Amino acid sequence: SSFLFRFAKTHMGKTPETMGSAMMLLGIYYLLGALLIPAYMQTKQMNLVSTGGGETGILPLMAFGVIVLAGFFMDRIRRHDL
Predict the structure, then answer these.
(1) SS3 for 3-68, per residue?
(2) Neighbouring C-alpha atoms within 13 Å toward the C-beta of 54
(3) Residue 63: what are its φ and ψ, rounded to 5°?
């Protein structure tokens, strides 16, 4: 992996920030795929048991999202980019 990074830096002029951006894009694609693919699957054929969690299952995810967004905006405010 260090060889690939060195090659990209010297021959293509890429920086670690470029690699980080690409990894963020792949991560978002992975998360969206995990959310969207089951929506198109035929779940009736899978014999899934309902857990009855209801809307309470999404609350921890929403809390985590709020923490992530707060960190993002705090960083933007500190750098005066907002």
Answers:
(1) HHHHHHHHHHCCCHHHHHHHHHHHHHHHHHHHHHHHHHCCHHHHCCCCCCCHHHHHHHHHHHHHHH
(2) 1
(3) -65, -45
Chain center to CA of 23 = 9
Q: What SS3 state is found at 81?
A: coil
Question: Are 19 and 25 spatial neighbours (Cβ–Cβ below 8 Å)?
Answer: no
Q: Are 41 and 35 in contact (CB under 8 A)?
A: no
Q: In the numeric block, which tokens belong to residue 73?
A: 């905006």
Residue pLDDT tens, the chain, 82 long: 566 666 666 666 667 777 788 888 888 888 887 777 776 665 555 666 666 666 677 788 889 999 999 999 988 888 876 5
